[in-house]
Amino acid sequence: xxxxxxxxxxxxxTSVFLAxxxxxxxxxxxxxxxxxxxxxAQAPHANIHATTTPAAVSAADDGNIWQxxxxxxxxxxxxxxxxxxxxxxxxxxxxxxxxDQIAAAAPRLAYVQQIAARHNVAGEFAxxxxxxxxxxxxxxxxxxxAGMWQIMPSTANAMGIRVDKNFDGRLDVPAATDAIMxxxxxxxxxxxxxxxxxxxxxxxxxxxxxxVSQHGTPPxxxxxxxxxxxxxxxxxxxxxxxxxxxxxxxxRFNVSLPTLPSEQRLVAVSIDNSMPMASAASHAxxxxxxxxxxxxxxxxxxIDASASPYVLLPxxxxxxxxxxxxxxxxxxxxxxxxxxTLPPLSAALSAATSNDDDAADSKASRxxxxxxxxxxxxxxxxxxxxDIKQLEQWNHLAGPGVKxxxxxxxxxxx
Length: 414
Hints:
44% helix; Membrane-bound Lytic Murein Transglycosylase D, Chain A; mainly alpha
């Protein structure tokens, strides 16, 4: 990316390494205070704003993103296994190419890291898209994995991610990342070891649980557990720790990491109506290709607000997008045939000035929701401003999958 500046990082403090190693693989990292989001109540419009979709993400440049990432690491460092440094050197064998690749990935990486922090997931897992796709929105063919997380269609269905001819949620950065982090957090609750979490991500949860029940939880040493898993599963963990190693000690591998200006950090800006992607790009002052790169889930040239009620934009473009929509009265938006009709911005603006008590009473009256075709647990949680885990708990769900016609409780039982 042209405007990302290079920064030769200072050596990482020894205490950070010791903390990462001493914490052991079973602990969840403490949530870094720097990544806590700031409230968005000061947005210029109640329904066009930098939203906390689907996990709260701040657009502010809260310092060196790489130091934040290092502070959230919870697994072994570079010298824990020879394979880690071997793969770290492979990644950086061409330093200039690596620096260009990591610079292009930096906005998405920073976004993913903050969602990981919100779910209390170890920072290394924000680097999985590097191992899978280098953060590129890989389309994939029929029955093939897709998106920067490389999610299989069956996995997407189990996680409640919408995939159809108009929208592929696996390519939608906010929705897919939030679903993955929810999954990884649950894996850790069940398995208690971040190394096994990565094995489960690559090989499947039930297979790893079965292996653990037969062979027991692996000891801390060796760092790469000697368990009867496929070589590709073991290598996945090595690769993940290797890219984390490069982030820990870039000087060791003759590379520098970029700084990420606050205006390039990604934010999700809510929209009320569906709109052509070209129109959204025009509102944001971007090329359609640029905008599509960050909103690749939309397959038909239209951002379907029933599937993606937001546009993912660089922070520096978000205000222009909001202002342009408000100035136009959202006349550039359109409804997509077969999707829910959402309220126009004028109605939302009027609603935003209504009595707060009335709004609170209205919200309190919504106790249940009947799942419609194409909806996911995440989209329902977003609609009612509740957490996915709360919905799962209130409705005694074993996972995020829901079916059309299912009636869900959307508020705490009273």
